[in-house]
Amino acid sequence: MDFRNKMLAAQDMKGKIERDRERKKQLKDGVTAPNRPFGNKKVNTSKTNNFKEKQIGQRLRSVVDYLRQHQGEKVPLDVLEREVLGHTFDDDTELTDNLLNNERTIWKDGAFAFNPKFNCGTAEQLQDLLTERHREGSGGITLNDLLDSNPEVQKHVDRLQKEGKILVIKNNYTKNFVLFHREHSEEITIDEKFVLLWQEISVADSVAVDQSLKDAGMSSSQQRVRGKSNRPGSSKRQKKETKIRNFKNEHMLGLGIFDDAVDRNDKNKKR
């Protein structure tokens, strides 16, 4: 095994010497290694691509936000170059491709325009949109989606809600407000006496329930699980006393089996 390792080491050394000679010969003859864009340093292309994509995404969001603020207007390229980018689109071809393929932008007549997800520029358009979704059975629309389509839609929502034409319900799970069309023909009139009786029904909270159980000499299952038991056998187990055991074979001394061993021990002690 040692011989094999020595042979391999000798071959590696020989190859290194030959490579050094070849490199020196190339330098002497004026032949240089091919140019490398980053020298001999290794470049992590994945990090470089991620950084580039992040930059493009930021510029894309800036342009879309600007178009959203100027909804209904056609924004020429020179305005976007001056107000948002600070450079020409000719120097940013990837951003141009993303804008042309983005569903929130429209390219027409040499200018970009914002393409909203929902057409809710006016209160009437918002009402028609909710009515159409109600007939199709598509459900409601979140307020965030409407604000993304039109940042000024809140005033239309307040007006229609005040007029009783739409319903605004808060989703307790997502904490978002959802808008629905209000169909008056499907509403049911409830007698006020029944409403008052329903409101007068009191439901005991957990504190009142625990107090009632305590007055009756009982406890809730939650207290029985969490509380400590007072049963006599529930205390901690006591450690068993360890008995001192004698492992010497003194009971076999009179049988003459260990006489030789006892004599040797006595002689060793006298020494």
Fraction of residues in helix? 40-55%
Overall 3D form: flat
What is the mean predicted local confidence, pLDDT?
73
Rg from Cα: 44 Å
Please report the number of helical segments: 11
Instruction: Give the percentage of residues in beta strands.
Output: 5-15%
- The low-confidence parts are 31-44
Side-by-side strand order of the widest sheet:
1-3-2
In N-to-C order, the SSE pattern is: HHEHHEEHEHHEEHHHH
Outline the biggest β-sheet.
Answer: 3 strands, antiparallel
**How many E strands?**
6
Give the termini separation.
56 Å
Family: Belongs to the TFIIE beta subunit family.
Function: Recruits TFIIH to the initiation complex and stimulates the RNA polymerase II C-terminal domain kinase and DNA-dependent ATPase activities of TFIIH. Both TFIIH and TFIIE are required for promoter clearance by RNA polymerase.
Subcellular location: Nucleus
Region (Disordered): 1-46, 214-248
Please provide a written account of the structure:
- Tetramer of two alpha and two beta chains.
- Residues 13-23 have a biased composition (Basic and acidic residues).
- This protein is mostly helical.
- Among the domains are: 50-114; 123-186, Arc Repressor Mutant, subunit A.
- Helices cover 51% and strands 8% of the residues.
- The protein has 11 helices and 6 strands.
- It has helices spanning 2-29, 45-69, 77-85, 93-100, 123-136, 143-149, 154-162, 192-200, 206-215, 221-226, 259-270; strands spanning 75-76, 105-108, 111-114, 141-142, 166-170, 177-181.
- Strands 1-3-2 form a 3-stranded antiparallel beta sheet. Strands 4-6-5 form a 3-stranded antiparallel beta sheet.
- Strand 2 (105-108) and strand 3 form a beta hairpin.
- It is flat, with a radius of gyration of 44 Å.
- The protein starts with a helix and ends with a helix.
- Residues 31-44 have low confidence and may be disordered.
